[in-house]
Write a structure and sequence with these properties.
The complex is a heterodimer. Chain A is α+β, with helices and mostly antiparallel strands. Helices cover about 25% and strands about 20% of the residues of chain A. In chain B, the strands form 6 sheets. Chain B has a 6-stranded mixed β-barrel. Chain B has a 5-stranded parallel sheet with strand order 3-2-1-5-6, with helices on both faces. A 3-stranded parallel sheet of chain B has the order 9-10-11, with no helix packed on it. Classes of the chains: A alpha+beta, B alpha/beta.
């Protein structure tokens, strides 16, 4: 073991770790699951939800794994009867002020609160009390906010302020009346919001959801295809959510090497062009001033014969191609190869300068 | 990118995005990442929260400029003068890294001679930036431990774009701020696959992997693999093809996924060139200004409809995966293969992974890349062999130039091609806003984005607006020597006095009718960032 490394055990499994790591980080690395609600790897540790409480040998009360740094020879137990009971009570308390409408909730199947209720056998009937009855907020094109489903984990507020630094939302009010909101409860506009949807991406319940994909399919019905964004040159990884042959939503995974699940307005919401009715659907050949629809074979025949005729008449210097920084590496390589092999010149350039 | 290639060896960012949070001094130059590269800006914001000092070189008061320790509010196009001024201050005070200069660079004496003439008085006059700010920026940058220069198209989209990048390299080299984690030069690429398109050889003078076409050994390698002779003559740049088309000497063109009739500057000339062609094929997702001039229009497949790879601005090669079948039935790689077969040169790829295998075999920097590896790991080039882990930081040891030394290039201030005068008193800067992208053919199809930002706005300073009696939301006419457009005005401190700003996202307000015909002579990059206009109500 190298210098400066510590040794701890989690559920009896030994692990080497660095001194500024938290118990939660080490547990994740070992593959030991500790339930969390307010934690997001993109955010600073918060310790708000108390769901990640673990037992540490020699420490009287349980401590939150997300905020507790490791110490040498620490022996951690992530689950026992006491901790299970505490977690169950936490979930029951959260459900005491939550509309149990999973059957019609957009988030069902992708909801941490629902998963925890399942795990701890909680249905929201044990604790009765006053419930929020607040209107749904959706006076903007992208983000739907249903405050009744908020559990006050603060993740949306923190990602907006810590990561994006947009300052769009904050926790407002106190006690029972506390909830995340924009300044003065104003609708989201470009004046106060970037519409990156980062808050939606971190919300563990159905409080914040993508308005565009409402009713377009639940998580379990989606085929997720990992790919790379086609807008700027940052190279964020996207998960295209596909249902019935259509891209209906875009999400991103935390293990994306460049963006770690973060996306901007274009990456997250700019996908409509894929299925736009304005897409060119088939090859078109000019006949006079008009274009007529043609088959691929017809169009390719015309192209091959015209290029061959031009080569014959004017030679290879009079023909060429522009490639595109929007196309894949393979296509760029291939177009350049076509110019050099079929046309016999080096008249090929790309739009890397626009 | 030709700039960095001349100075350092490769036209690519020297470091990785993940290293950004550890930067202690960030010099952001000609880049507005919170708008144009929001996810890069997340890394930079993390650096700022970790306490990094921030220098911003930008004529616009951007989000980052507002939060900067020093804002170098230079006049558009005075980049070289500013860099020379910074180096002048550094050398005068002995803040340079002598050891680095001696051990790892060449050409320092010429640079020293050149910048001697750029004292603060002269630089103040040329750039409009106060001497105090220049001195403070020079002090911050040269005294840093982990200093990174992050630059964008505000550097390259000038007629001196290539030289501007070299001037940046000069500054980094003088301080030895290159070749270490979190320390180097990052160029932010505008389009998703600018890096890949540069790497893979659709360029008139190089074969894939920056292998010069003039080199007989390189040609022999490709000729052997491809079974045909490769012409030793450099081809025409895109600009030259268009120029020759106007002269009637260039006849046939295949344009893959580009819209020069909207996004190139001085679009009148471009349109005349396209009209002169005997045969034009355009493949695109949508009808654009350019498709109007085509003889054959082919439907393109979007990135969701095909397999492939993109290479991002930090040289990372990442998979593009087919989520749905091509709406038109064929992806571009299939179209090119079929066309080639019809013209008599066989291409028999069954899947893009086979094209990548060919790329790897012919292109040393991509030598270790395969789809199979990309399923398991994320790789940044240079990655020459199957067991090479890829490269996070370039030049930690040697520069990729002859002798392994970086080269100083002594440069003079030239300024923009067109400067404001009595008739056209404003400088027009063009660029992006966060919500839209390039010619708008993609984002313009997103209902929510169109609802938020429905139209072009001319950003202008309140003092200018007051003088011309223009109020926020007024419709104004913006004209240059080449054309005019009508837009609404947005009064904002983001534009300095004398400067105005437009995007190029809207077809009904084509800002490139205004932009000038000046270009970088080396790369052909147009001077999008500066031209003279007048504004009338």
């Amino acid at each position: 073991m190298s210098e400066g490394k510590l040794k701890i055990t989690i559920n009896g499994i030994e692990a080497a770790c660095e001194k500024d790591e938290t118990i939660l980080q080490v547990a994740k690395r070992l593959g030991v699951r500790i339930p969390t609600l307010c934690h997001d790897d993109r955010l600073e540790p918060y310790g708000g939800c108390r769901l990640c409480l673990v037992h540490i040998k020699g420490v009287a009360r349980p401590l939150s794994a997300c905020t507790t740094p490791v110490a040498d020879n620490m022996a951690v137990t992530t689950e026992n009867d006491t901790i299970r009971k505490i977690r169950k009570t936490i979930v029951e308390l959260l459900l005491s002020n939550h509309p149990n409408d999973c059957m019609r909730c957009e988030k069902s199947g992708d909801c941490t609160l629902q998963d925890l209720s399942y795990e701890y056998g909680v249905d929201g009937s044990r604790l009765e009390g006053e419930r929020w009855d607040l209107p749904v907020r959706e006076a903007n094109p992208f983000i739907r906010y249903e405050p009744n489903k908020c559990i006050l984990c603060g993740r949306c507020v923190r990602i907006c302020n810590e990561v994006v630094m947009a300052g769009t939302i904050d926790l407002t009010g106190r006690g029972f009346y506390a909830r995340p909101d924009t300044a003065f409860g104003r609708p989201r506009t470009l004046a106060n919001c970037e519409f990156c949807g980062q808050c939606v991406s971190t919300c563990p319940t159905g409080a914040l959801t993508d308005k565009k994909s409402m009713g377009r399919g639940r998580a379990c019905e989606m085929k997720k295809v990992r790919t790379t964004c086609g807008y700027c040159g940052t190279g964020c990884n996207l998960d295209l959510n596909v249902r019935d042959g259509r891209v209906v939503k875009v999400t991103s995974a935390y293990d994306a090497p460049v963006n770690h699940g973060n996306l901007c307005i274009k990456g997250r919401y700019g996908y409509d062009f894929i299925h736009s009715f304005e897409r060119i659907k088939s090859p078109l050949i000019r006949k006079g001033v008009k274009f007529v629809t043609a088959s691929w074979d017809e169009a390719l025949e015309v192209m091959a014969s015209r290029f061959k005729a031009l080569l014959k008449k004017y030679g290879p210097d009079a023909v060429g191609a522009f490639s595109s920084a929007r196309c894949t590496n393979e296509e760029n390589f291939l177009l350049a190869k076509w110019v050099r092999t079929s046309l016999g010149s080096n008249n090929v350039d790309n739009c890397a300068r626009v | 990118m030709a700039g960095l290639a001349t100075s350092l060896g490769a036209g690519a960012a020297t470091n990785s995005l993940a290293q950004m949070p550890e930067i202690d001094t960030l010099f952001l130059f000609g880049s507005n990442p919170t708008e144009a590269h929001p996810i890069v800006s997340i890394y930079l914001k993390k650096a700022l929260r970790n306490g990094a000092r921030l220098i911003v070189g930008d004529p616009r008061l951007t989000w980052m400029a507002k939060r900067a320790d020093v804002w170098l509010n230079l006049r558009p196009g005075s980049n070289i003068a500013l860099m020379n001024g910074l180096i002048h201050v550094i050398l005068k005070n002995g803040w340079e890294n002598r050891e680095f200069i001696e051990r790892r660079t060449e050409g320092f004496e010429e640079l020293r001679e050149k910048v001697r003439g750029y004292d603060l008085k002269k630089v103040e006059r040329l750039t409009g930036v106060s001497g105090d700010r220049i001195t403070e920026a020079a002090r911050l940058y040269s005294h840093a431990d982990k200093a990174m220069i992050v630059y964008g198209l505000g550097v390259t989209e000038h007629r001196t774009g290539t030289e501007n990048a070299m001037a940046i390299a000069n500054l980094a080299l003088v301080c030895g701020h290159i070749g270490r984690p979190s320390t180097g030069i990052m160029a932010l690429r505008g389009q998703n696959n600018v890096q890949g398109a540069s790497d893979l050889g659709p360029a008139p003078h190089i074969l894939p992997g920056y292998q010069p076409i003039a080199n007989p050994d390189v040609r022999a390698k490709f000729e052997k693999a491809w079974g045909v002779p490769v012409s030793p003559e450099a081809g025409l740049k895109s600009v030259e093809m268009l120029d020759k088309a106007c002269e009637g000497k260039f006849k046939g063109l295949f344009i893959l996924g580009e819209d020069p009739a909207q996004t190139d500057p001085n679009v009148h000339e471009v349109r005349r060139a396209l009209q002169s062609l005997e045969f034009l094929v355009v493949q695109d997702l949508f009808h654009t200004e350019t498709t109007k001039y085509a003889h054959v229009i082919l439907p393109g497949a979007s990135f969701a409809e095909k397999d492939g790879t993109f290479t991002n601005g930090e040289r990372r090669i990442q998979r593009v995966r087919k989520a749905i079948e091509p709406l038109s039935g064929m992806a571009e790689w299939q179209v090119i293969s079929k066309l080639s077969n019809l013209m008599g040169y066989p291409m028999t790829y069954r899947h893009p992974s086979e094209i990548m295998d060919e790329i790897a075999a012919l292109t040393p920097i991509y030598g270790g890349i395969s789809y199979e590896r990309l399923e398991r790991e994320s790789l940044q080039w240079p990655c020459p062999t199957k067991d090479h882990p890829g490269t996070k930081t370039l030049y930690s040891d040697l520069f990729s130039r002859p002798g392994g030394l970086a080269r100083f290039v002594a440069l003079d201030h030239k300024g923009p091609g067109e400067v404001p005068d009595r008739e056209y008193p404003f400088v027009l800067i063009t660029g992006r806003i966060r919500e839209h992208y390039n010619n708008g053919s993609m984002t313009g199809k997103v209902p929510g984005i169109v609802e938020l930002v429905p139209e072009e706005l001319l950003e202008m300073n309140p003092l200018d607006a007051k003088r011309l009696k223009i109020r926020d939301g007024d419709t104004v006419r913006v004209s240059s020597r080449r054309g005019e457009i009508t837009v609404k005005a947005k009064i904002t401190e983001r534009s300095q006095k004398g400067n105005v700003f437009l995007t190029f996202h809207f077809r009904n307000a084509l800002s490139n009718l205004l932009t000038s015909e000046y270009r970088d002579p080396i790369t052909g990059t147009p001077e999008y960032k500066s031209c003279a206009v007048k504004i009338e109500k």
